[in-house]
Write a structure and sequence with these properties.
242 residues; alpha/beta; Rossmann fold; eight-stranded mixed beta sheet; 6 helices; 24% strand; FrsA_esterase; AB_hydrolase_fold; DLH domain-containing protein
Length: 242
């Protein structure tokens, strides 16, 4: 399938400008769409490849930019410093950027706005779960090794109409057991449609082929978990977009 890609600029109400990347199948008309949220480094070739793969499956894919146009951290410490204020205040700082990215995707003429889902990796996993928590009418969200903590400032109201799939590394020391247990309790309280998969021997960032080069404790690529989780995500998209 022929795929076209382009970068698009979009802005939030605070005047921040972002630069996302969209992948569109040839002759696309009113297709289901998937919003892709990057890991802590921001948009990299990894997320772009995922966007391309989704477009090859017949979806419009939009790789969202949460840091801002021209802000592309090169070093690990720089990436964490850029991400920190968004994670520290998820309601005031992160939520507007999530909603702005979703709005930008829905403005694309090729998108069927009634069939939109979101996937995210690491930091991006937190982002898609928050979109579900805000009841943004997404068909599905898929979190890969994302943070699971709830948003303390918002009530635990039911999550309506969004299927949730979480892929967690069973050997992930960055996401503690209390987060896992707390997430299950939150989803039950919210009466959510959720599936939680714990992948044996997988550490944090297990989908990222470059994870071993990060030289960080508890972080590493796991090919089996990466392939299984991706296959499960695609199966869910096929289900909710049918």
């Amino acid at each position: 399938m022929s795929i076209s890609s382009k970068t698009i600029d979009y802005s939030d109400e605070q005047g921040n400008t972002f630069e996302g990347v969209v992948y569109i199948p040839k002759n696309a008309k009113q297709l289901p769409a998937v919003l892709v949220f990057p890991a802590f480094r921001g948009i990299t070739e990894f997320e772009k490849e995922k966007g391309h793969q989704l477009a090859e499956l017949g979806y419009v894919a939009f790789v969202a930019d949460l840091y801002g146009k021209g802000i592309r951290p090169k070093e690990r410490d720089e990436a964490f410093a850029t991400m920190k204020p968004l994670v520290y205040n998820r309601v005031d700082n992160l939520k507007p950027r999530l909603l702005t990215s979703l709005k930008a995707l829905k403005t694309l003429s090729e998108v069927d706005v009634s069939r939109v889902a979101a996937i995210g990796f690491c930091f991006g996993g937190l982002c898609v779960l928050d979109l579900a928590r805000y009841n943004t009418q997404l068909k599905a969200v898929v979190s890969f090794h994302g943070t699971l903590r709830p948003v303390p400032e918002i009530p635990l109201v039911p999550i309506v109409g969004t299927s949730i799939q979480v892929h967690h590394g069973d050997a992930d020391t960055h996401i503690a057991k209390d987060q896992v247990d707390g997430f299950h309790e939150e989803m039950r309280t919210r009466q959510a449609d959720f599936v939680f998969s714990s992948h044996a021997k997988a550490m944090h960032s297990f989908t990222e082929p470059e994870a071993d080069s990060f030289n960080a404790p508890g972080v590493g690529y796991n090919e089996k978990a990466a392939k299984r989780s991706w296959k499960a995500a695609i199966s869910l998209l096929e289900e909710v977009f049918a």
